[in-house]
Write a structure and sequence with these properties.
The complex is a heterodimer of chains A (322) and B (203). Chain A is of the alpha/beta class and 322 residues long. Chain A has helices at 14-29, 50-59, 77-89, 138-146, 151-164, 193-196, 269-277, and strands spanning 35-36, 65-70, 93-94, 103-107, 120-124, 175-177, 181-183, 202-207, 212-216, 222-224, 251-255, 262-266. In chain A, strand 8 and strand 9 form a beta hairpin. The radius of gyration of chain A is 20 Å and the shape is globular. With 203 residues, chain B is of the alpha/beta class. In chain B, helix 2 (15-31) packs across helix 3 (51-60). The mean pLDDT of chain B is 92. Classes of the chains: A alpha/beta (322), B alpha/beta (203).
């Protein structure tokens, strides 16, 4: 570590932490109400998880074990950079193991391994307002939340059905929390929505650019919106993970060459890695050729230099299939 | 010790980590109402402010959060100057202006609806009440249900406000508006966020 400047523990100053901590407490007390907070400039651009980082920085202590995932992966630029950031500014233990983490910061996935009581899941949220693409005015959406006026959201889902014959929303699928507020579960695939329902872990959501914090306490009702004749369904995959043969997990498509070759592998790298390394696994010792190398995390504690990205981190941000 | 010294002594020995410890205890109990977190005496405020309540005030209050003190605390110049010195929080003129309220004698406190309830648009603009209670086992048992509770939880805080169960029912009816309560004993914390339902009274 260079001695350019000595920052406070976990980077943020104490007054900022108190302000964010108060917002978190209100968020927990009013599940899914979006608490406004004075989001700070962070040493990373908006869209890279400034909200999640501020929430994590405000709750983290020296005894915590931090895991950071980006679309389920522990080894992508965003995850590696944020993990390195907290290792540097808070000197906390970091891990890629879901079960041993006390705080898991995530960009758009919930780990496959079931979460347990005492764990905190911190989401990086680009656009916290579920009604934003239906009603651009903050004054109006605030009133709609106040009056519990969510008809527009059902109209949007109905229009999906009218156009496509089914609800075509696949990520950021709206949920209702404790029968009151409608929430955008950040752009997680709807595959993960059922995992939010009565999760034993505390779920905190931070949106840095939009300056909102919200929360879902443990064991809270999180119901995906649907219709009686078009019930909520999660994505299914017609093949198992090409590396670990896992079924009923969320898969990513990986392009292998420029001749259309591709494979589907677990989005959750920790889950996939564990299955492949487990001696009971039929695939143990025989990983798919050429595909496992990039996902190898034998040195999760190293801090590689973040590479420049060609694509913005939130490719889907700002777009909504209407 | 003279008043000036009393109002300066007794803050956090390690402000960054002690504040984090206290906050995590409050956050965990707020997320799991009815659960109790042990907390060592990290602050030594002047009486009648308790060590736990004092530590919560140090962890959460600053110049952005008007603080209301109940008559027992308001009467003590030392308490007011201790809070002023360590947190910088202004004292609220009325309970409805307060972001936090410190209450040393809950049995004699005013009605919950006298505090700020927030608005329908901004339900977060409500008062968080920090109540000194003797313990969490010797009072009338309260059976709790709601978010954060797997099936049900029971706490029995001593010296609670009068007609508390009735008042709490009204508080729930105001949802999303309403107050949240942090119960501070001599060595622990429990919370009652506005979503927690007190189902039935056990005998």
């Amino acid at each position: 570590m260079t001695d350019i400047a000595t920052y406070n523990f976990a980077y943020l100053d104490e007054q900022t932490k108190r302000m964010i901590r108060r917002a978190i407490l209100k968020g927990i007390a009013i599940p899914d109400y979006q608490v406004p907070f004075a989001s700070r400039e962070m040493p990373m651009p908006y869209g890279w998880g400034t909200g999640g980082v501020q929430v994590t920085a405000s709750i983290i202590g020296p005894d915590d074990v931090l895991k950071v995932i980006d679309q389920g992966a522990d080894d992508t630029t965003n995850a590696v950079s944020i993990r390195a950031f907290f290792k540097k500014v808070a000197n906390v233990a970091v891990t890629t193991d879901t079960a041993s983490a006390t705080i898991i910061q995530t960009r758009h996935r919930i780990p496959e391994h079931p979460l347990k009581t005492g764990q905190v899941l911190v989401y990086q949220v680009p656009i916290p307002e579920p009604l934003r693409f239906l009603e651009p005015r903050e004054t109006e959406t605030r009133k709609m939340h106040a009056l519990e006026e969510y008809g527009l959201m059902h109209v949007k889902l109905y229009e999906d059905i009218a156009k496509h014959g089914r609800i075509a929303t696949t990520y950021a699928y709206p949920v209702k929390v404790e029968g009151r507020y409608v929430m955008d579960p950040s752009p997680t695939p709807k595959f993960d929505n059922p995992k939010m329902h009565r999760s034993p872990a505390l779920q905190l959501f931070g949106a840095g650019r939009e300056k909102r914090i919200y929360a879902v306490p443990p064991f809270t009702e999180v119901v995906s919106l649907d219709f009686e004749d078009h019930p909520f369904e999660v994505q299914t995959f017609d093949q198992p993970c090409a590396l670990c043969a896992a079924e009923n997990v969320y898969l990513d498509e990986v392009i292998l060459d420029d001749h259309g070759g591709h494979m589907f592998v677990c989005s959750d790298t920790d889950h996939c890695e564990k299955r492949r390394n487990a001696p009971t696994s039929p695939l143990w010792g025989g990983r798919a050729e050429g595909a496992g190398g990039g996902l190898d995390q034998s040195t999760p504690h190293s801090t590689p230099t973040p590479a420049l990205r060609a694509d913005p981190p939130h490719k889907e941000e700002g777009k909504e299939k209407q | 010790m003279d008043i000036a010294a009393q109002s300066i002594e007794g803050g956090f020995a390690d402000p960054v980590f002690n504040a984090q410890t206290v906050f995590r205890a409050v956050m965990d109990t707020m997320a799991r109402p009815g659960s109790v977190q042990k907390l060592p005496a990290l602050a030594r405020p002047p009486a009648p402010l308790s060590a736990t309540a004092g530590a919560i005030a140090l962890a959460l209050c600053d110049n952005d959060t008007p603080l209301w003190l109940d008559p027992a605390l308001q009467a003590s110049t030392t308490v007011r100057s201790w809070l002023g010195f360590h947190t910088g929080a202004p004292v609220a003129n009325t309970p409805a202006d307060a972001h936090f309220a410190l209450i040393a004698a809950p049995a004699e406190m005013m009605a919950l609806d006298g505090f700020s309830q927030g608005t329908q648009d901004y339900p977060d603009r409500s008062t968080t009440l920090i109540l000194h209670v003797g313990d969490l086992v010797s009072g009338t048992p309260l059976l709790l249900e709601g978010p954060g509770i797997e099936t049900s939880a029971t706490i029995a805080p001593a010296q609670m406000p009068r007609h508390f169960v009735e008042q709490w029912k009204q508080n729930i009816k105001r949802f999303p508006r309403g107050v949240d309560i942090i119960l501070a004993t001599a060595d622990g914390i429990a919370c009652l966020p506005r979503t927690t339902r007190i189902k039935t009274m056990e005998a």
